Amino acid sequence: MDTSSLASFATQLSQSQVQQQVQISVLKSAQDMASSGVLQLLEGVSESAPSSPTSANLRVGSQIDVRA
Questions:
Q1: Rounded CA gap, 37 and 11, in Å?
Q2: In 1-68, alpha helices (H)
Q3: C-alpha dihedral over 42, 43, 47, 49, to 10 degrees?
Q4: Tens digits of per-residue pLDDT, 3-13?
Q5: Is residue 27 very low, low, confident or very high in pLDDT (cuts 50, 70, 90)?
Q6: Please, what is the end-to-end C-alpha distance for the chain in angstroms?
Q7: Exposed e or buried b per residue across 11-48, where buried means at least 16 C-beta atoms within 10 angstroms of its C-beta
Q8: d(Cα 31, Cα 53) in Å, to the nearest integer?
Q9: Dist. CA 43–CA 17, nearest whole Å
Q10: In the chain, domain spans
């Protein structure tokens, strides 16, 4: 193996390592954005869901009548 091929190999290896680091960084950024989106959705659901039953009859809506 001559020096030019060794230098070329080292350059390619370095470039692939940089590409891998960039891909990992982009993946982590996407995961962070997704997790913040999920947290916002969960907060919205918990805010809109009633914490206590509002109807006088607690059995209302607890059964479904199905007829064929």
A1: 39
A2: 3-48
A3: 10
A4: 888 999 999 99
A5: very high
A6: 81
A7: eeeeeeeeeeeeeeeeeeeeeeeeeeeeeeeeeeeeee
A8: 36
A9: 39
A10: 1-31
List pLDDT tens digits, range 11-21. 999 999 999 99
Dist. CA 58–CA 55, nearest whole Å: 6
Q: Would you state the torsion angle of the CA atoms of residues 6, 9, 11, 12, taken in this order, to the nearest 10 degrees?
A: 170
Instruction: Locate 56 and state its tokens.
Output: 């006088």
**CA 40 – CA 34 distance, rounded (Å):** 10
Q: Which of 24, 44, 48, 46 is nearest to 36 (CA)?
A: 44
Question: Where do we find the tokens 């230098």?
Answer: 7
pTM of the model: 0.56
* Length reported for the chain: 68
